[in-house]
Amino acid sequence: MSGPLDGLTIVEGGHGIPAAYCTQIMGVLGANVIKIEPPEGDETRRLGPFPNDAPDRESSALFLYLNRNKRSVTLDLDTPSGQDLFRSIVKRADAVVENFAPGYCDERNISYAALSDEHDSLVMSSITPFGQNGPYRDWHATEMTLFAIGGLMNIVGDINREPLKFGGSPALHVAGINSFTATMLAMHLAETAGIGQHVDVSVLEGLGASHFQDLVDYEYHRTVIRRGDMRTPIPTSDGFISFQVQAHVYNDFRRLILGPDAADDDRDAASAIQAQQSGEMDLEILTWSLEKTKLEAYRLGQEAHVPAAYLADMSDIMASPQLQAREFFVEIEHPKAGTLTYPGFPAKLTGSDCRFEPAPLLGQHTHEVISEFTDLSAAEIGELQAAGVL
Amino acid sequence: MANRLPLEGIRILDMGQFWAAPNAGRAWADAGAEVIKVESCRRPDPLRIQARKIYPDNDPGGEHGDHWNRSGMVNERNRSKLSLALDLSHPKGRDLFIELAKQSDAVSQNYSLGVMDRLGIGWDVLHKANPKLVMVSIMSQGLTGPESSYVSYGQNLEQLGGISYTSGYPDDEKSSVGFALPDPIGGATAAFALIAALRHREETGEGLHIDLSQREAATLIIGDAIVEYSLTGQVPPRIGNHEPGSNPSECYPCEGEDEWIAISISNDAEWLRLCEAMERVNLGSDNRFATIVGRMRNRDAVDELIGEWTARFEKMELFKLLQSHHITAGAITNPRELFQDPHLRERGFWEQVEDYSCGTQEYYGRPMHLSENPYGTRTPTPKLGQHNYEILGGLLSLSNSEIDQLTNEGVIGTEPILTAEGGMARRAS
What we know:
Chain A is an alpha/beta fold. Chain A has helices spanning 18-28, 61-66, 80-91, 104-107, 112-117, 143-149, 170-193, 203-208, 214-221, 250-258, 269-277, 282-289, 294-303, 314-319, 321-325, 366-373, 378-386; strands spanning 9-13, 32-37, 70-74, 95-98, 123-128, 197-202, 234-235, 240-243, 308-310, 329-334, 338-343, 347-349. By secondary structure, chain B is an alpha/beta fold. Chain B has two domains: 11-221 and 369-408, Crotonobetainyl-coa:carnitine coa-transferase, domain 1 (Rossmann fold, 3-Layer(aba) Sandwich), CATH 3.40.50.10540; 249-327, 2-Layer Sandwich (formyl-coa transferase, domain 3), CATH 3.30.1540.10. Chain B has 18 helices and twelve strands. In chain B, a hairpin with a 6-residue loop joins strand 7 (249-253) and strand 8. Chains A and B meet through helix 2, helix 6, helix 7, strand 6 and helix 8 of A and helix 3, helix 7, helix 8, strand 6 and helix 9 of B.
């Protein structure tokens, strides 16, 4: 079997998460991904924790995850020789996905304008915190500050405390996903109509487009929603669970907690749910929940048709019977980091395979890729290596 | 030459409801696909008639009394689509759907497990009717496995997927965020998966079925934490607003009630710039704070010091001031401020739409911009059943009188049939 992106060659440049995540998914689906790293390596290689607390640029969990299925080429883009090699590789690729700072590529003559000069149908996707123009273009940002500016921190956390960011870096990952979609659409135009283009992906706008209700609440009736009191999940014998009780399952929920003989509540559903949320059934819920494990409570709730969940940490996730039954996890052997468990792909495609090869060692494929993509001789590549360009 | 849109010529039947799936449909519709939102009068998108009701000026009525066309929750995420209100539980409705599937490239659905099969329009039926069809099933937990029949909303998946666990206050093990991040993630994942699958179909000539688990899509976003757990055997502690490598990294109070600014200092030079901005240059040489280790060990003192200073400023002024000193900061922005944000305004992020029953409204636009073939909202969210005649007449060549007959039989329509509470969807985003 083959993958949906077989035959596409993607060049990735930059540091960190968004471009790397985008091209990682492309690699899982079959694309040939070439990662351009500076001679000292992508900065995520420095992020721990590391096995036995020994820093090792080949064993960063974040790097290993974000760079599966890629080949690594080290290039010093601060030198004309490095820039020239970058252009040579791109000339034979379908797309560039990069998250350098705005202006970085212009200064190095590897901007979309420069690259497309030699490659009409090239697609170049540039992911930046704020996009390629506008007053904030060059401002500094991190995951947290983007969550703040994007309006999501305003509604996450407890109103009696400071706002909270989400754990991990969902904003940067979502930008990677958005870039995937946009790059694919642009490559479709390149493949079918020979049109190349520059794709501008903004992390901030990805958050602006991830609101559930507060933007419409404001637009439709000028109500400004803020965080609420953080609802405490329900304790069980070994962790926490929660229910999302909506009107149509309210009486199912009553019978789950109070027993199968409990009569229907004769109030209207909305006021009954409001009473339950303000604590009306708390004692009964606790009596029920504390005798159960979180997995039991989750299963019983779901069997009663009540949307239920448990607060899963990483060990729970790895042990999940559902995720294991779907073979969501994959084992990948890496020459330095060893065999580790990774998440696979969140969808099964009939008649199509996902690929899971280990992340590359720094510069592992420099020689191979330069020979494949340029007409340089082994001696010339050797000279470039000696000069520190590769 | 007219602007060619990337998905021109692609037709998608979008049965998505709630948040995640309709959002994916909008991504394809904006990009030029002909996306037909298939609902029925018996079972419209639940956000039209129940759950969070958001109407212009809080008025469900409107000029024509059609409150189901005035729901902000639906109008925000079903733009650029056509609407067909077709009763799929009626044999004629099912047959018409299959005929439409024969003329379509893709079907997207997020019903509970088994609903499509019970309606007689499961993958086997549709694939047989149209072997080149691509179908994406946007499931809570996928089509297989012991929990595949479980129902969920985004908040449930946030907990099951591990996002909640990693996102609380470090000093409160019970704290649990209650957003629904898996919804926008699930929608964006479905959007790219279908686009990839369409390419696969072009290469192989074969249709395919995408079995998407939103729970897994949520976990994928924090996938490095899985690898980290596998590497160390330790469940990583919650770190709240602390960004790895940044010291300090926190939300600080500003002037006014519940007003905040986020500041993230990634190195000693940036700390010096912050000291300059605070007009406290002497702090730059204070050994307690000058180094990363110093700031880690004296975190409470650093936070107190910064918080006392930030509290004297209006947050937007402070945001600009800090950025002018090249300091990484962002004001905690509420919806009113977000709509006014000068950067997003200049970028044209907001899209003004003349809604059919809601007047002029602004909605978020697309977070990606193609230089040569730009795309965005093409038409407002359709009214329920707005394109019944156009679609059945145009694609299936039914005559007006045949379509009138279907209307009389209740197979199609333009108004919800409101059943008693509980008669509606048992299914979440």
